[in-house]
Fold:
Amino acid sequence: MKVSEILKVKGDILYTVTPDTPLRQAVHTMAERDIGSLVVMQGGKLVGMLTFREVIKTLHSNDGTVGTENVRDHMAHDPVTITPDTDINEVRRLMLELHARYVPVMEGNTLLGIMSFYDVAKAVLEAQGFENKMLKAYIRDWPAEGDE
Structure:
């Protein structure tokens, strides 16, 4: 299964901010939209990611407040990216290896979407369910010995 197949089902809604967006505003957007990440774009190019991980670190270091700083001061710079042709097993390996819960999907310089750990887990579970149904149907229709 390829990333492009998951994106077709997931849809194409993306939430982005600029590096100069106040962190407070970015956190508000994440909470309001119930999302765990924002893509940081500048001049049409991906420059970083802001995830709940960076927000939690900021809260920890600022005694529970986000402060008055911008996204630039807290985002993950130069995040690893994947393409629509990346195999889902490669995405799983990459996410586990890098402890990444969100990975931007890029085609050249164009942002196509975000692949979350949840998206990957859901796709794998659905694929396994389909395979199980096919195997059960195959076993049920198994020819009796001598019926060849």
Q: What stands out?
A: Helices lie at 3-10, 23-33, 52-61, 88-98, 117-140. Strands lie at 16-17, 37-42, 45-51, 76-77, 102-107, 110-116.
